[in-house]
Write a structure and sequence with these properties.
344 residues; alpha+beta; Pdz3 Domain; 7-stranded antiparallel β-sheet; 6-stranded antiparallel barrel
Amino acid sequence: MNKIYALGLMILLVYCGFLTYQIDKLKGVQVNETKDITVINNEINGFSTDLTKVIDESIDKVVSVKFSGTILNNHRTGVVVKTDAESAYIVVSYDEGYSDEIKVTFNNGVEYDGTILVKDPYTSLAIVTVDVDFKVNSVEFTSLESASIGEWVISVEASDDRKLTTLASVGIISSDEQSLLYDHDGDELFDFEIKILNSDINNSVAGPIFNLNGDMLGFKLPFKKTIISSEEINLMLKMLETNADVIRKNAGISIINVKDMPTYKKSSNGIKLDLFNGVVIDEITTKSMFSELEVNDVITKVNDIIITDWYSFYQVVNGLNEGEEISVTYYRQMEQLVSTIVIL
């Protein structure tokens, strides 16, 4: 009888060993199947999931802006987009009812008087400057082309009393790059466009929108999901340098980036397939300064400046003076042409 018990115990031990081996084997398979997914110190495959880093890096660049006046909601969030030896330049959303008397408070609690340099009625943004006596950091821009639908973004707000240093909302980009189109001269054809994104951050806050690298994609308008692109803000700064005003000249043409056009569309429109820089004319108004050109012409240079996309095109055109003659290089199908055009 003892031999039978011993034999049974031996069989049981062998079976348990077999089960242990199978479990370890299954664990090994599971580990192998998921070995590419690791979470260490809030990182997934090297990508940080800790959003506090973005907030920490933006705190000293986001400011509280208060406009004097009688309207109730006179507080806005601004963001430092440029600095020089003595001044900080701040972009903030602006309503016509606001006073030009401004107080700007930085994250360290220091308050300065601000001065509006320029207002852009098309983006509802203003550039404010303050003279500062300490080091101020400005944001790093990133382009809309770097953004994708579904990408996480962060809205950062400065509280109006500065008791709360920063308020943040998280959402995703909900649309591809789009345009706000404007008919400047009332001829029912749009004359220029402003590049935007949309997000699902649907709060009343107006302020900078950052990606998870801490770079600014653009500026969200109040009570809307619309994000004015960082390219438009940079264009405002460039126009401010050259014209001391925001000027959006009526070029009278609708344009598309060549690099954004698929090969089949290039082919069907007679555009050289090896062109990757320049802008394609999609529409021409009756009052356009580019009336000598035709739809599907590809503008590649203005004077000696290479045109890479819509942003570089408008940057050049808006920096020119009325009555100035410019040389425009363009392709009409396979032929390169040059025309002299007078800025209107």
